[in-house]
Design brief:
It comes from Glycomyces endophyticus. Residues 314-338 are annotated as: Disordered. This is Erythromycin esterase family protein. It contains 14 helices and nine strands. The chain has helices at 25-39, 51-61, 68-75, 84-97, 123-133, 139-143, 147-150, 153-156, 166-184, 186-192, 195-218, 224-250, 262-265, 284-292, and strands at 13-18, 44-50, 107-112, 256-261, 270-274, 277-281, 296-302, 316-319, 326-329. It is globular, with a radius of gyration of 20 Å.
Length: 338
């Protein structure tokens, strides 16, 4: 790959975008760039996949489990585990970590939730947090059958959504109470188990809250363009919050690289045509860029001229699919002052 603009230790979060998911010509170039960023100090990788599921991927990367197939199947959601590029990513991260001190090891984090065109039931996430606390709450009596939440109609059709009913509102109160109790009981819980177990319980409670927020938005009877714009906005807001939480945990070790679609990472408002609808919302990158300022860098991925609409606000563009991969300044990028 040809040399490009220096992006690395001066930034806390570096977004590595792609215009399409899968085993594209960009996948190898992005992994090559990622290795260079690790040489420059990156120590954590955040991925457009469910945060709780990502714990299984990190277990493999850290050597706590040994099955790559299981890590891909259970640790990556949204179908990402099926791509060879992601198999190579996890295998490379594990190999990198061998014989390295904890401060220099790579960690893997999901930053998404278990939702998009479908959304999971909050039941297992609430029950995990409840069980860690030892609380007596009958979550299943309120959620009912998981399928009423996870079927596609629950997101596609507001009339079929359970997200704004009495049970859903009670579940949101329970989720909030469980999260508060986890903090209130943290000294006892960490002493009885471990900080890692407490963190897992917290992530389960936060994921449940995120799911209930997403389901509530899915239940709103609005113009479909407006409803899907808001759903997209809720999803990216939760991704941004998760990413900032990852940064809080990783701040002392080095920058975080984020692997996601350009639409999530671009600094400008995201606009998308989908099923005859015109969607508009603030993506994860737009939110994080405002909150982190010059500490956020965005490298857009491009497979050709058709991807130009995805490059808004990029600091650089990683080109692949047209000759040798190359990293170049974005055409509209302004000179940086950091």
């Amino acid at each position: 790959m040809e040399p490009g603009p220096h992006i690395g230790a001066a930034h806390e979060v570096i977004g590595l975008g792609e215009p399409a998911h899968g085993d594209t010509a960009l996948a190898d170039a992005r992994l090559d760039l990622l290795t260079r960023l690790v040489d420059d100090g990156v120590r954590s990788i955040a991925f457009e996949s469910d945060r709780v599921a990502g714990l299984a991927a990190d277990d493999y990367v850290q050597g706590r489990t040994d099955s790559l197939d299981t890590a891909l199947a259970e640790g990556l959601t949204h179908g990402f585990g099926a791509f060879d590029a992601n198999r190579r990513l996890l295998a490379w991260m594990r190999a990198h970590n061998e014989d390295r001190a904890p401060r220099d090891r790579l960690s893997f984090h999901g930053i998404d939730g278990p939702f998009e065109f479908t959304a999971a039931s909050p039941r297992p996430y609430l029950e995990h947090a409840r069980d860690h606390l030892g609380a007596d709450v009958d979550v299943a009596a309120l959620t009912g059958d998981d399928e009423r939440w996870s079927r596609m109609e629950a997101v596609l059709d507001p009339a079929a959504s359970p997200g704004d009913g009495d049970e859903a509102r009670r579940l949101r109160t329970i989720a909030d109470d469980l999260l508060t109790a986890l903090y209130a009981e943290a000294p006892r819980l960490v002493a009885a188990t471990s900080r890692a177990a407490w963190d897992r319980a917290r992530l389960h409670a936060e994921t449940a809250l995120g799911l209930l927020r997403y389901h509530r938005q899915a239940a709103q009877r609005l113009d479909e363009s407006e409803r899907w714009s808001r759903l997209s906005g809720v999803r990216d807001a939760l991704m941004a919050r998760n990413l900032l939480d990852v940064r809080a945990a990783e701040a002392g070790r080095g920058p975080t690289a984020v692997l996601a679609h350009n639409a999530h990472l671009r600094r400008h408002e995201t606009r998308m045509e989908m099923a005859g609808m015109n969607l508009t919302w603030s993506g994860t990158g737009a939110i994080v860029a405002v909150l982190l300022g010059p500490k956020y860098a965005f490298i857009a991925g491009s497979l050709g001229p058709a991807d130009r609409a995805d490059l808004g606000g990029a600091d650089a563009v990683l080109h692949a699919g047209e000759g040798e991969p190359r990293l170049e300044p974005a055409p509209e990028a302004e000179p940086r002052r950091d």
